[in-house]
Amino acid sequence: MDITCLGENQYKLKSKKGSLEVTLGEKVEIVSGGNTNSPFVIRQPGEYEVDGISVFAYAATGGIAALVQVDDIKIFCLANIIDDSVIEDQETVDVVLLSCDNVGSKDLVEMIGKIEPSYVVPAGSKEFITKFVSTFEHTAREMPKLSLTKATINAEITDVVILTG
Length: 165
What we know:
- There is one protein chain.
- By secondary structure, the chain is of the alpha/beta class.
- It has one domain (2-163): 4-Layer Sandwich (Metallo-beta-lactamase, Chain A), CATH 3.60.15.
- The protein is 16% helix and 44% strand.
- The protein has 3 helices and 14 strands.
- The strands form 2 sheets. The chain has an 8-stranded mixed sheet, covered by helices on one side. Strands 5-4-3-2-1-13 form a 6-stranded antiparallel sheet, with no helix packed on it.
- Helix 2 crosses helix 3.
């Protein structure tokens, strides 16, 4: 799976099964079978599956939080703090795409500590991303895309990756 940045809070997830475009807090669009003219758009809470791509959308302040599962990789797409009960329902989360613009950095760091992902990809304005990374006390590396397979994910550590694009 490849994750690339399309804009300040927008990401593209490309997998073997299809691709998704995520606007953090607003929507998830699934494009499968090469049909780019009519993507499946998710804007409401619920459970969805399209061509082997599963999305669990949860109500969140100001929109939705989405857990995407594809190619045996779980990606949480978050624009705000989510309830602890939602976090507790997840066994393992591999990647968190996280908007840093709407919430204080300390609250985001606390939430990430509960989720314990292998990768955190902060999104939003450069100022808020820098503040989040400083508060999280991890070094961050910049790259144009994050390429993952289940075999390459190290569950023992959390890497911070800033996607440039």
